[in-house]
Design brief:
The structure is a single chain. Strand 1 and strand 2 form a beta hairpin. Helix 1 packs antiparallel against helix 7, helix 1 packs antiparallel against helix 8 and helix 4 packs across helix 5. The protein has a two-stranded antiparallel ribbon. By secondary structure, it is mostly helical. It contains 14 helices and 2 strands, in the order αααααααααααββααα.
């Protein structure tokens, strides 16, 4: 495979998104869907997929018209230079908060699962330093690494689902009726807020080539993601019941701890935590890469490698002061950030697209 001018293929970009979705999905999807849709929460990804199809076609329309132009240039052309820069400024602020939030989630997850007496600062320092070193090389390095690790991640993910089936109770997924439609729409926001990372990396990814293939490859990626999300949520609800999931911080971790493989391999949660660390790394690295694209467009920089370390250091300290506890993080997620995600990753691009249609620029 060839790499031109440090760019990655669309397929690699989609794999990065799917790896990045894993960590927040494990933490958020079961709780959010069970809280809003109870036993019917496992069907929420189906609704999300239907909603997401027009998003894929919107991305294709942007790519067809503007080719390799980033969303920064698209906003400037459609909305005007000053409004475009104002929107970009809010994107930069929001993405910084989001990156710091996930850094803090990563450290809190390690503290609450396997290393309760360690330091938040140490975990986040190691993560930000590793990300900075990787991205100073090239985003291609990140894409290659993820391309190698993704099959292993998928294998373990599917294995956990399969080996949880002995504890699965189909009755926990029923009853389903037309009365569940409205609750499922509410649960849909939690899923769309995370799936929105696909248009985010696509719109701001100056490092991606062959963007016009998004219609075919994007739909394939989202079909796969929707199927895995349905299975994942269904297993969590089927093993634990929706009423219990609502009060557990990480239900999937509880499900995994119950796995006993042939009565010889038990308590494989350490493997799952290791995968979380890897996917958190991919997620944070992807966000910082997007932030570099934004800063490059905002300040007309020729290169951003010299500011990656500084930006990573800022993210470290921002993550430490963002929230005081895991409880505050969970409250912030459920009440605020997931809905803001939907606004920035789906609503604003859709608004720009509509303006572009009205002005006949798309």
């Amino acid at each position: 495979m060839t790499y031109s001018q440090g760019k990655i293929s669309l397929r690699q970009a989609l794999l990065l998104v799917m790896s990045s979705i894993y960590s927040p999905a494990v933490r958020l999807f079961p709780n959010f869907t069970a809280t809003h849709a109870k036993q019917a929460g496992w069907l929420a990804p189906v609704v999300s997929f239907i909603v997401f199809i027009p998003v894929i076609y919107m991305l294709y329309a942007f790519a067809k018209k503007y080719k390799d132009e980033s969303f920064i240039g698209i906003m400037d052309d459609i909305c005007g230079r000053i409004p475009g820069k104002i929107i970009l400024f809010f994107y930069i602020i929001w993405l910084a908060i989001l990156t710091a939030l996930y850094l803090r989630y990563y450290s809190e997850r390690l503290l609450t699962t396997i290393l309760p007496h360690a330091s938040n600062f140490l975990f986040i320092l190691i993560m930000t330093a590793t990300v900075a070193v990787t991205l100073r090389k090239s985003v291609v390095v990140l894409a290659r690494m993820n391309e190698i690790l993704f099959p292993f991640l998928l294998l373990v993910y599917i294995g956990c689902i399969i080996f949880s089936l002995p504890e699965f109770r189909f009755k926990f997924l029923l009853p389903i009726s037309r009365l569940d439609i409205v609750p499922m729409l509410g649960a849909n926001f939690g899923i769309l807020g995370i799936w929105g990372y696909l248009p985010l990396i696509f719109l701001f990814g100056e490092n991606i080539k062959n963007k016009r293939q998004i219609k075919k490859q994007g739909i394939q990626a989202m079909v796969f993601t929707a199927i895995m999300s349905v299975l994942f949520i269904a297993v969590c609800i089927g093993v634990l019941d929706s009423s219990l999931i609502e009060i557990l911080p990480i239900p999937f971790f509880v499900v995994v701890r119950q796995i006993s493989l042939f009565d010889t391999i038990e308590r494989i949660e350490s493997l799952i935590v290791s995968l979380w660390v890897v996917t958190d790394f991919v997620l944070v690295a992807m966000f910082i890469t997007i932030a570099m694209d934004m800063l490059k467009g905002m300040f007309k920089l020729s290169d951003t490698k010299h500011i990656i370390s500084i930006y990573s250091l800022i993210m470290l300290f921002l993550s430490l002061i963002l929230c005081k506890s895991l409880f505050e993080l969970e409250s912030f997620s459920g009440l605020f950030y997931i809905y803001v995600n939907v606004v920035f990753t789906l609503a604003i691009p859709a608004f720009v697209f509509i303006i572009g249609k009205i002005r006949k620029k798309v």
